[in-house]
Amino acid sequence: MPNHNKLDRRAFLNRTALGGAAATAGTVLAAPAIAQEMPQINWRMVSSFPTSLDTIYGGGEQIADRLRETTDGKFDIQVFAAGELVPGLEAISSVTDGTVECAHSVGYYNWGKDPAFAPGADLPFLLSARAKAAYNYYGGGIELYNEFLAQYGLVSFPGGNSGVQMGGWFRKEINTLDDLKGLKMRIGGLAGMVLERLGVVPQQIAGGDVYASLEKGTIDAAEWIGPYDDAKLGFQKVAPYYYYPGFWEGGPTVGFFIGKEHWDALPATYQALVRNCTQATDMAMVAKYDYVNPPALKQLIGDGAQLRAFSEPVLSAAFDAALQVYDEISAENEWFKRQWEAVQPYRDDWYLYAQTSEYTFDTFMMIQQRQGKLTPSGG
Amino acid sequence: MPNHNKLDRRAFLNRTALGGAAATAGTVLAAPAIAQEMPQINWRMVSSFPTSLDTIYGGGEQIADRLRETTDGKFDIQVFAAGELVPGLEAISSVTDGTVECAHSVGYYNWGKDPAFAPGADLPFLLSARAKAAYNYYGGGIELYNEFLAQYGLVSFPGGNSGVQMGGWFRKEINTLDDLKGLKMRIGGLAGMVLERLGVVPQQIAGGDVYASLEKGTIDAAEWIGPYDDAKLGFQKVAPYYYYPGFWEGGPTVGFFIGKEHWDALPATYQALVRNCTQATDMAMVAKYDYVNPPALKQLIGDGAQLRAFSEPVLSAAFDAALQVYDEISAENEWFKRQWEAVQPYRDDWYLYAQTSEYTFDTFMMIQQRQGKLTPSGG
Known about the structure:
- The first copy, chain A, is α/β, with parallel strands linked by helices.
- Chain A has a domain at 40-160 and 251-290: Bacterial extracellular solute-binding protein, family 7 (D-Maltodextrin-Binding Protein, domain 2).
- In chain A, 46% of the residues lie in helices and 14% in strands.
- Chain A contains 14 helices and 11 strands.
- A 6-stranded mixed sheet of chain A has the order 7-6-8-5-9-11, with helices on one face. A 5-stranded mixed sheet of chain A has the order 2-1-3-10-4, sandwiched between helices.
- In chain A, strand 6, helix 7 (189-196) and strand 7 (201-203) form a beta-alpha-beta unit.
- In chain A, helix 3 packs antiparallel against helix 11, helix 7 (189-196) packs across helix 12 (312-332) and helix 12 runs antiparallel to helix 13.
- Chain A starts with 8 loop residues before the first helix and ends in a 9-residue tail after the last helix.
- The relative contact order of chain A is 0.14.
- Mean pLDDT of chain A is 91; it is low at 4-35.
């Protein structure tokens, strides 16, 4: 990073006058407090997640906490876990239909209602979390998604990301494309549609039943989230092969969805607060996952998980299938098409650019890690 | 990601009562506005950057804008570019000495005063931006840095990151370690100290003089930032070899430094605002760089820049030299040692974990990019 040590003439002149003034200009003025309208707002937020998934559920709590702390409690949102007020998958719909004011959810949960809900959350083989943020905040991603959402009476801001998820737990190894034929896997949405073209038989199974289904062999595989959340359920005991990457979720955006009429009625300062508090949460959730996943992965391996990478033929076939699926949906759904076409130029540019500094720095550091050169010097 | 479609009994019971209540419970209550003390605060922020570096300088402006928007102008910070009030490199010191209330700068600019300022910003071969955020927000990085900063009357929060920077511009190719011997390179701080051990002769040259120095051959190489900022200066015309990665800056944290007595005097809501607005800016700066760097790199290549990767022997020698430097500084500086030792366990864990989903997802996507498979379907 460059140094900027130049001081221009004006600066020197200004500076001489500073010494005395500085001590009094700053900090809190004792001047009369200004009476300020900060309306009391009481909202309810439904989360699509159970409290046991503390990081992703915690994102909704974080948004509420941040709004409360920055308004001295005036902007108060009560958070309900999945199932407390409405089922997790109905969180977004419950904002559209006016049951609650806001939701913390993932757009693709509404994929069955309208596939165009998905691109604002994630698509298989889309972008990693960092590139997703770049596209969302500077590439027009947030604006375009909100254009689409308006017809459902919704406004949404990114409010969390898990990073690249794991590919899930398998009872047997997947070496070739043939190993996927007839494989019963708990996986939903677009990802299920993509894997179906490779012969997988997608299964819809409630979270609480996944372990037992794997144990009994009712299903052969199940995707969940990543090491930290997966470790809580002990999948390695019944389906020890732990595959990566979860190519269907490279950087899923967890959204804060607000009823448009509630958003429009907010004072400008509260709207600015929502933008800031959700963006801070968006970064904080990735940061927390990035902090808790590494030790959890080590623990899982210690507990018997067998790490496996999907082979190149599997990834390539899934990539081609995904493109087909996007083409077919695009032919039928204008809003899906617009979003899918809008993100592609940046995706191409990013994965060219990332090959330089980002990738070589990380690769070099990983090589050092494998050689034991990152072992703490104190230990 | 799992689906959570369970609805418990309590939820059903609650839900039946919701329909009517929801329409009135939400949005802004027309109830009397509560008079609320929001003190007027007027601070000055000095940036270490010139306005021409709009993204990194813009981070300081963003923090000020966000605080203004969320307080209806009550928390008002005027931002001064490098050199307007104080020289860029003196930004942090000018907070310590009470000249201004706050600064937007990089801790390692104060490295000469105390090497322990560096780890809170960046060290060669430390962490990428995402892992840095994880360590900062969840690994105790922010707290530890602030423990150190207290003795300088400072409080600091991350307020920006550039991502992995480029390795800079070279007049000739660097193929072997011998090519570094006697190489006059504009590079400062700890990075200069590390490269010096490889035979490089570090040069301190003001930003405005770098181009002319490269053109005349007064220096052989210069590091700057990344494609977007570098493109403004046209270095490719005089030093066409553009190296990566900038291993001395894997994820430099740009900090928002506040005079501790000013911080302590802030109301709790304003402190919460500072935390939220800086964290949002921390993520926004990476996002912006990640959005503007990719097209800038393509443009630079079109304009004649020759992309080159540092060879493995160069990176390895620099890595070993960095470890030596850290050991030597640690032997003399307790606060440097504490910070360096604190970050190492997470660094080791992260670069093990990142080898799974994150790395394989990105690698696969980069392969698709090279094969032209990310070319926009519309184009």
